[in-house]
Amino acid sequence: MASRAKATIFDIAREAGVSKSTVSLVLQGSGLIRPETASKVRKAIEDVGYVYNRGAANLRKAHSNVIGMVINDLTNPFFAELAVGMERVFQSAGIVPFIANTAENPVRQEEVLKSLMEQGVAGLIVSPARGTTPGAFRKIETAGLPVVFAMRRLPESRIPVIAPDNHRGAYLATAHLIGKGHRRLVFFGGSSDLVVYHERLGGFREACETQGIAARDALVVEGETSRRGGIACLETALAMAEPPTAALCFNDAVAFGAMLALRKRGLEPGADFAVVGFDDVAEAEHYMPALTSVAVDSAGLGERAAHVMLKMIQSRTTRAEDHIGAVNLVVRESCGPDRRARNRPAGSGDAA
Amino acid sequence: MASRAKATIFDIAREAGVSKSTVSLVLQGSGLIRPETASKVRKAIEDVGYVYNRGAANLRKAHSNVIGMVINDLTNPFFAELAVGMERVFQSAGIVPFIANTAENPVRQEEVLKSLMEQGVAGLIVSPARGTTPGAFRKIETAGLPVVFAMRRLPESRIPVIAPDNHRGAYLATAHLIGKGHRRLVFFGGSSDLVVYHERLGGFREACETQGIAARDALVVEGETSRRGGIACLETALAMAEPPTAALCFNDAVAFGAMLALRKRGLEPGADFAVVGFDDVAEAEHYMPALTSVAVDSAGLGERAAHVMLKMIQSRTTRAEDHIGAVNLVVRESCGPDRRARNRPAGSGDAA
DNA sequence: GCCTATAAATGGAACGTTCCAATAAATCAA
DNA sequence: TTGATTTATTGGAACGTTCCATTTATAGGC
């Protein structure tokens, strides 16, 4: 049974009493083979314990059936969701995606990309690591391999992007905060080496401007995009001479951190200080208090990215249109009205 | 620059004025080539935009340098951690692991396994999907491919396993609960198609027995291993005629669910009902109240699994010893003493 | 200057497939 | 029957590498 040297189509051919070509045809499900012959061959395949050698096949075939998905942080459920969405559509297309994690490390990313190319992937879906250099994808592009970016984009690049409408999401969230009566706001977390940061911050600023918040009341505190970063952001914000009353956070992790820090100071998130997150990870709904957040439907974006990739491969092109996914503010309990604003209506009419 | 047909070692050879064999040697970093020749070749490699074809190489070479990691649920940070741990050691060994997700689906798992084998991986690390049939790995075994199971094992299988000491973890946690004065306990979540379930439940039962808890006071409520499952478990437990006062949960997700459900009923986790989790995911520490949980060091287990795999490949064997990882109960705030027990010392002895 | 030893480079076969062109067998029209 | 057509099957070349056995160039010993 377990013959030491692995079986090839020649072994199958001998076993079934046909030629290697016939075996190959059966393997590919060709209709040219007489059914009885085909089943004879299939039996032989079982008997010899054959495993198909895709490497050898790709030597002759134009395209492989594997696609690489390069994810910047697999431990972040947000990106894991993205991967799962992509998988769903590839699976139904008979393609097996291989996932590789770069752990937000450009050097690692380079290795991973190289390895995937050597493996002969048909295409690449990438959520680029922070700090990716502009030239990182040049080689891949000149090789004519289809690539799409998901979630994140590179500053200047012609590679198609599938991403949420960060600007609008931040705008919506900020407008909601302002609508609740907050007049001194802060943007928490992230740093300017990330395009997403600029997009979200842009939405925040535009909302402030549009809704009559002075620029000096639209604060920014950069920081890590993690729980820890959120804690730090909140500390520095509350240490200000004139602290803000509400925060839009770069992502949910930062928001969780900020809420944690509030609790530690004896303040109640929502009542004493409003916080809204971004991404709407599964945890947001279950937090105490439940976090108001901008839902981006990462699994949906993953599916979209996969579809775009499939189409690119099929039409053997390396170009495609960007796709900006709709976002959706889901309001929960983490941002009550500004305390001071709430007191006012009871008193006298004041500027809205 | 971007020549349409992809470059091969022959193109490099022509460009550099050497033979294909020389190019091959340079590619492999052989010391047999004169340094000047080597650098001439390396320049040519750059110039023609060459990408190595690993499939072709594997046709001749004995072993490939890719390892497959098959994960049952990537969106569970617990398993994602496992993957990250493995990656860490493979990276330093110059091996690129490809991750594939089975989404807890045995059929999907079969496809993934097949694809990985066809790709010619050197080995497989698998956290098997729930409901995996005993024969699912037979083909792989007869092919002589090294496999190790991580986190989970199959009922009867000779494949080496790297997993935490579930029995002991559950024992420790249960003993802690009993030490806090609880006399009627429940095990929440999981179901008997999972070996891990039996291990953890076994630890729970042994602790109860050893510490003088009658069997009828060691309850079990099966359920989904998710937040939702935890909610359901708590509901049924509290609906009992004589409800328990403390729960050991199958994993942290179940514990979060249970705590959520407690809150919803106006009960305070920790004070009114003790809950301890299992796995100690990152979130546990930050929950309100912080969750007491059994830490299993999944990243560490991932590293261990990777090391075992590396050794198996190196010594071309398909056998290795199991490795049971140490566990560690980390006590936080989610399990105070039994209320009634707390009252006793002050007042008088009453029925527990 | 010749022979030998060492270093550097090379040609050819092999790896396991696919695909094309060719053959063999079966069917049909006349 | 014979040739034409269709249906099944097959051999051979090619894909891009590695590796072995050779060849060629360089150096060393006398």
Features:
352 residues; homodimer; alpha/beta; DNA-binding; six-stranded parallel beta sheet; elongated; 15% strand; six-stranded mixed beta sheet
Can you describe this structure?
Two copies of one chain form a homodimer. Chain A has 352 residues and is an alpha/beta fold. In chain A, 44% of the residues lie in helices and 15% in strands. The first copy, chain A, has 14 helices and twelve strands. Chain A has helices spanning 9-16, 20-27, 35-48, 54-60, 77-92, 106-118, 138-142, 166-179, 195-210, 227-238, 252-264, 282-286, 298-314, 339-346; strands at residues 66-71, 96-101, 123-126, 147-150, 161-164, 185-188, 218-221, 246-249, 274-279, 292-295, 323-325, 328-330. Chain A has a six-stranded parallel beta sheet, with helices on both faces. Chain A has a six-stranded mixed beta sheet with strand order 7-6-8-9-10-12, sandwiched between helices. The radius of gyration of chain A is 27 Å and the shape is elongated. At the A-B interface, helix 4, helix 5, strand 2, helix 6 and helix 11 of A face helix 4, helix 5, strand 2, helix 6 and helix 11 of B. Chain A binds a DNA duplex (30 and 30 nucleotides) through residues 8-10, 18-22, 24-25, 27-28, 32-34, 37, 52-61.
